[in-house]
Amino acid sequence: AYHLGLNNPDDARKVGLKAIKRIPGTEEEEKLNVFMAMVSLEVNFGDSESIKRAIAEAAKSSDVEKVALRAGEVLTNFGLGKTDKKEKQASLDLADNHFKTYLKKLKQSVGFWLGYMKHLLKTGRGADASDLLKRSLKSLPKHEHTTISVKFASLEFEEGSVERGRTIFETILSTYKKKLDIWFVYADREVKSGNVEEARGIF
Question: Is the pLDDT of residue 2 over 90?
Answer without folding.
Answer: no
